[in-house]
Amino acid sequence: MIKKVPNRKCIVCGEMKEKHELIRVVKTASGEISVDIGGKTNGRGCYVCKNETCICAARKGKRIERSFAMSIPEEVYNTLEKVIQR
Questions:
Q1: Dist CA 36 CA 27 (whole Å)
Q2: By the 8 A CB rule, do 38 and 24 touch?
Q3: Residue 48 in contact with residue 80, Cβ under 8 Å?
Q4: Which residues pair with 25 in a beta bridge?
Q5: Handedness of CA 20, 24, 28, 32 (dihedral sign)
Q6: Is pLDDT at 86 greater than 90 in this prediction?
Q7: How many CB atoms sit inside 10 A of residue 9's CB?
Q8: Segment 71-78 mean pLDDT
């Protein structure tokens, strides 16, 4: 049996990619925003491509802020940049 791989859309470029090719940013029920490396944290999530172009555009265009309708701490963007440098 073939297992279906879930696809998600990048909030910056709008490209549909497999879930493991994107980085998830999650807002928990308590309103905390964090980068979800494993992709399993409970809460509302949005996805960004694992490339510098999309992360810079997300920061510049405040895409994550719009997605969650709240301000985002600068360390979330810093964590995203650290993830792609690995």
A1: 10
A2: no
A3: yes
A4: 35, 46
A5: positive
A6: no
A7: 13
A8: 94
Look-up of token digits 């910056």: 12
Q: What is the pTM of this model?
A: 0.92
- CB atoms inside a 10 Å sphere around CB 45: 16
Domain of 66, CATH number, reads: 3.30.1230.10
Whether 55 is in a domain gets the answer yes
Domain extent, residue 44, equals 7-85
53, 78 contact by CB (below 8 A): no
Euclidean distance between CA atoms 38 and 58, whole angstroms: 21
Q: For residue 85, what pLDDT is reported?
A: 87
Return the SS3 of 68.
Answer: helix
